[in-house]
Amino acid sequence: MKRLVIALLLAIGVAWPGLAAAELREIEAVGFVALDPAMPSRRSPRDAAMRSGVAAAVRRVALQELPGFRPEDEAALDEALGGDPMQFASRFRIVEDRGVQPALLGNDPSIETEYVVVVSVYVDVDRVKQRLTDEGLLSASPVGISTQPRVYLVLEGLRSHDEYQAVRSLLIDELRVRSASPVMMERGRAVLEVEADRTPRELLSALLGKAPDHLILTPLEIRGSRVSVRVRFTAPPARLDPGADRQGSSEHARPASRAGPAGRLPIDTPGQNRY
Fold first, then answer.
1. Residue 104 sits in which domain range?
2. What is the pLDDT of residue 242?
3. Chain centre to alpha carbon of residue 50
């Protein structure tokens, strides 16, 4: 009888204490785990990558609730969210299991492969906001979702981890964007969700203006909030050793190998202009 009464009250829109539904936000994120034979894990690579994807989704929701977040506050945010992202996820599922891929997302150049998945996560926004409030990162008064523009930066023609990392470092370190989170990764291509106080055209202009000489960005298209660029990266020229013999060895320096760090081979990409 009680269930019937509650159902009737909900049907006519009458609030009932304790029955308010949690605010859930669906986020699609890329998760990965480095495959290091020297450091085996108890979790399967698939489970570890899925957990990484859930953590990325939770972090994106947290950033959406922190309009004044600064890159230097990264450590405080990590500490606030803790080590268990599952506590903020109502439900989740793997929408794409990409398996073992050449290393692209991690920061360790000695790692050659990683396990990658794409997950869909329903993040409990109320729980995230409560944690941020408890840790002093969010005001107790509701501020709503940040209206800071989000630009989806499509990187075409990626051949190595160095190219991906060079663009992301340019965004974070030089342009000082709030975040640059990968939302899609596939062979030769990546999409970053960039939160910055710039329109898509302004972001592209800033990228082209700040890119170092060894990072060549070629604009391809601007469509709505989506900016596509082709990426080419050449290693910066090595500095001469001041202590080297200057009496002139006639031997020319060998051209740089196309292999990445630790002998990593470049990632195959589609043919010319197929993107």
1. 24-134
2. 52
3. 14
